[in-house]
Amino acid sequence: MRVLPSSPRARRRFFRLGVVVLVVAAIAGAAVFIRSPKQPPRAPAKNAPPAQVVKQSKHVSPADRRAIDRTLDRFIPAALDDSSPATAWRLAGPDLKGGTTESQWRHGTSPIPFYQPRGKTFHNWTTIDAGPTYVDFNLLVHPRKGAKTSASYVFAGSMVKRGGRWLVNGLYTTAIFAKPTKTGQHEVGPADFGAGPAASSNEAPPPQTSGGNVLGQTWLLAAGGVVLLALLFPLGLGVASVVRERRSRKRYAQSVTRELPPLPRSYGTSQPPGGAPMGGQQH
After folding, report:
1. What are the structural domains of the chain?
2. Edge-to-edge strand ranges of the sheet holding 152-162
3. Measured between alpha carbons, how far apart are the two ends of the chain, in Å?
4. What global pTM score does this model have?
5. pLDDT tens-place string over residues 241-271
6. Which residues does residue 168 pair with via DSSP β-bridges, in sequence order?
7. C-alpha–C-alpha distance, residues 253 and 179, integer Å
């Protein structure tokens, strides 16, 4: 069975196709053999310095607390239910205003979530972190009677001190306390959609592997080798055919002589059957 075409032009095309296939196979082989970067070790190095514990302060002076209370008493009702966007804009810090204008706040476009709070004072905030010019806090707010929602919201916020004034520099929802469902769950927040709790110390840790997914890399290498061999087989046939063709042409060119062979000697002496010599005169 003939594997290669008989036409020299077709064989040359076959050879060019083999070169293209070889290039593609080389690129695929390089992609297979490139190993994924090593993951950094989880355990710290032996000569690593001791970890620095981030210290947080929750101390807020009585004067600053009273000033923050006054700001929140005006900002919360003005900003959450859009009753006074101008007041909320004046009491907002630079981070909360960032990228917006007062006109946008007046038209209902602001980064503050909509909520209808109950009460006029909001002093029940708890400190998360505090410094001379900033305070991070959590604030629980209940809905007023007739509000669109009956759930209580927990807001995380930050205060910043600018020019002797405390301004609200951030405010977003962190938890929603709704009515209990059939399953007993009544709190919805970011923690409900996060990862599960860490395993306790008496539980066995998950198995660790040092070399990555070795089995997967082995199968990839094997598959890549098979594909590479399948692609190189027709290329080798094409190369062999071209080499044989060139050798045949070379041998043929060497065997052919450029001089014509001599005429036979009997051409001038042979006589026809009538007895007269060829080429002579007849009497």
Report:
1. 8-31+217-250 (no CATH), 62-191 (3.10.450.540)
2. 126-130, 134-141, 152-162, 165-177, 187-188
3. 68
4. 0.49
5. 777 777 777 777 777 655 666 767 765 555 5
6. 92, 159
7. 100
